[in-house]
Amino acid sequence: VNIGDLLGRAEKHLDMTEVEAYFAGKRVLVTGGGGSIGSELCRQIMSFTPAKLVLYDISENYIYDLFFELQEKYGALTRNTVELRVGSIRDKATLDRVFSEFQPEIVIHAAAHKHVPLMERSGEEAIKNNVFGTWNTANMAEKYGVEKFVLISTDKAVNPTNIMGASKRLCEMVVQCRQNSATQFVAVRFGNVLGSNGSVIPLFRRQIEAGGPVTITDKRIIRYFMTIPEAAQLVLQTGAMAQKGELFVLDMGRPVRIYDLAVNMIKL
């Protein structure tokens, strides 16, 4: 199944000329670099020939696999450009070492707990990881003179009705309060990313492969959806274009009913 067929709209392709010029030759750090969004960011950033691309993630398996995927495509360039570091954004000492070692010019902060029902049950982990992890990373960005810090947020941060959304709204406040900083702090919000880890698409796929049934919580639920490449392009565009304190949102067209998404996926 082509995930783009489930959007209910044409997939957006942003003009990346300005983005490529901005990232070329820069030292870039991606937190959560092994996740579904972080890994796609790294794939796209590598095509812009950065001076250094640092993948920082708590999961060694994800960044290890991504490194060899990039190496297959870029060969020796990957070995000379990409650096892997295992660590948590909660760990100030490890963050400090990584920032000190690589002196990143651009930080894309993708590391976060994002699963809504799980975070309802583990609210303290959402706060510790999302809010204080963002606080730690933002402080390091200021300490080491980072040029631009891009926070990845969510449309669930708008008048939040769950702990995950509330934690991401706090993350936005962490960066938006730094108006007098030499580092430019910007944020980008997007909706549900089709096919990302923990999204409904992998769940529906497993249920269909097992012969059904496909389960949904409520037929009335609607969501704004985008693809992983769209999300990554939006983040990179934000990094290149946004000025201090700005918050970007992608126009994702009309919302899609979860019920319609499930029906269309079964048909496909």
Give structural notes:
By secondary structure, this protein is of the alpha/beta class. It is 47% helix and 18% strand. The chain has eleven helices and eleven strands. The protein has helices at residues 17-23, 36-46, 60-74, 76-81, 92-102, 116-121, 123-143, 163-176, 200-209, 228-241, 258-267; strands at 27-31, 52-57, 82-86, 106-109, 148-154, 184-190, 192-194, 222-223, 225-227, 247-249, 256-257. Strands 3-2-1-4-5-6-10 form a seven-stranded parallel sheet, sandwiched between helices. Strands 7-9 form a two-stranded parallel sheet. Strand 5 (148-154), helix 8 and strand 6 (184-190) form a beta-alpha-beta unit. Helix 2 crosses helix 10 (228-241). The chain is globular. The N and C termini lie close together (6 Å).
Compact summary:
With 268 residues, the protein is an alpha/beta fold. The chain has helices at 17-23, 36-46, 60-74, 76-81, 92-102, 116-121, 123-143, 163-176, 200-209, 228-241, 258-267; strands at residues 27-31, 52-57, 82-86, 106-109, 148-154, 184-190, 192-194, 222-223, 225-227, 247-249, 256-257.
